[in-house]
Structure formats: C-alpha cells, structure tokens
Amino acid sequence: MTYQFGSPARLGPSGPGIDLLGVRVSALNLRSACDTVHDAVREGQRGYVCLCGAHGLVDSQSAPALRIAYNKAFLNTPDGMPLVWELHRQGHSDAGRVYGPDLMLGMFERGLRHYLYGASPATLARLEDRLKKRFPQATIVGAYSPPFRALTEQEDDDVAHRINAAKPDIVWVGLGAPKQELWMARLRDRLHAPMLIGVGAAFDFHAGKKPQAPAIMQSLGLEWLFRLGSEPRRLWRRYLRVVPGYIGLLALQRLGLRQYPAVTAVGGPRISARKKEK
C-alpha cells in the first residue's frame, strides 16, 4: 500500500502494517516504535498512538466510533502477542510486542517533556515521584486526574487549555480502553503536543499499585491469564468474551468468510528507517 505525505500539522496512519479485523495494525517493535514517536516529536508533527490488543479489536466490532479512532491514529502498536503472531504470519518478521508500560519507559529514557492525564490523584502523585527519580533527564510538566464521568464540552476545552499551557512533547493518557482511544481522537485537534499516547494500566503498574505479569507469561501471550487471576471479579466477563471472540473472528477473516472495509492509510511519515531490534 502506498502512503501519501500530508500536512505536517496532523499525522494519519503511518508505515507498514496489516488490516486486522478492520483495524490497521502497525508492523513495529519497541525500538522502532520509540524511534518513530521520537522522530515525530522532534519534527513537530501531531498525532496519537493506540496500544492495540485483542480486547480493542473485538470491542471495535460493535463500536464504530472506536474503530474509526483506531484508524485515524498515527500508530496502532501491537500490544499483545496474538497481534504479533499475526504480523509474523503475514510477513512482518521484525514485528514485536509494543507493550504500553515499556513504551512509556522507553520514551522517558529519551528525556523530553511529559504530561500525565488519567488515574486518581494519589496514583498520579506516586507515578510522578517514581518517574522523576528514575528519569532525571525527563521533565514532567503537568499531571491531571479527570473526574470519573464524561466531561462536558467546556471541561474538555479547559483540559486542552491546561495541557497546552504546559507545552508537553507527549501526553500520556491512562484512562483505560476504549475511553482513552476515544478521548485522544476527540481532543487531538485541540492539543498542541506532538504525541498523545494511550497506555491503559501503565500508570497503575509504574506507580506500584498493580503487579505486572512475569515476562515469560507475556511472551507466551498469557498476560490475560495473569490479570484474570489478579482481578477475577472485574475481568472474567471481559476475557470470556475477548479470547474466544478474537480467535473466532480471526478464523473467519483468514477463511474469507468475513470481510472488512479497506482501511485507508493516508498522511504521516513512514515508520522510522533506523535498524529494528529483533
């Protein structure tokens, strides 16, 4: 697929990838994702990044607004091994998992100016303190804990003004899926920051509020099982729906028994040409 170069003021879908259940999933690994985001920040481009997993793909089947939000994103990184395996199957052998918490740490390592949006005031305070100690080269220019309800139009404008006044390079959005994807799509044109990145539970993980799955479980695609064991009452319905739902929908797409509209990939630069990590 050929990608067109649009206005540098607003980035659309970027780089190689696959159309998976009607969503454009970027062919990236952690290194190339960090390089691509950093390059966009340095060039003053604007876009948003979704950390895309099986959960989001399944939910997008019954939520057109979520599917549209994904397909307007600068990047939809493969935040889950099932997506990585499908990228490999379709010829993208260098693709690897771009896990939200790891992407966040990778970008803080590069310095830059960061804004934290989401979670509770207590979680934000702990997160900010830990990140400042670990990454003195980075600057946290602000943090905001929004109310746990839909914001009014005036409140959205106030939030945009608050974030713009802080002049961050990256706004980290920890609202959980799909709320954070819809928020980024809605607020993107009001915010001056080059990159908005939705990282879900990364705020809780890095603040020390919730444990992360062991690396071996992550690499085997079993993080969902670890999280289910940690929070069974909250998550059992989600995974009962998502795991068989994704497998079934993927089988239908592979067999040609379910078709999806072609994903238009226009605007934005290509994925960084720097050497990808294996």
Q: What does this 3D model show about the protein?
A:
This protein is α/β, with parallel strands linked by helices. 44% of the residues lie in helices and 14% in strands. It is built from twelve helices and eight strands. It has helices at 30-42, 54-59, 64-71, 81-89, 100-108, 121-134, 153-166, 179-187, 202-206, 215-219, 223-230, 232-254; strands spanning 17-20, 23-26, 47-52, 75-78, 113-118, 139-144, 170-174, 195-198. It has a six-stranded parallel β-sheet, sandwiched between helices. Strand 7, helix 8 and strand 8 (195-198) form a beta-alpha-beta unit. The longest helix is centred in the last third of the chain and has 23 residues, at 232-254. Mean pLDDT is 89; it is low at 1-9 and 265-273.
Shape: globular
Largest sheet descriptor = 6 strands, parallel
Radius of gyration: 18 Å
Q: Gap between N and C termini, in Å? A: 24 Å
Mean pLDDT: 89
Task: Tell me the helix content.
Answer: 40-55%
Query: Percent of residues in beta strands?
Result: 5-15%
Question: Low-confidence runs (pLDDT<50, min 5 residues)?
Answer: 1-9, 265-273
Secondary-structure element string: EEHEHHEHHEHEHEHEHHHH
Number of strands: 8
Widest β-sheet, arrangement of strands: 4-3-8-7-5-6
Q: Helix/strand/pairing class, anyone?
A: alpha/beta
Number of helices: 12
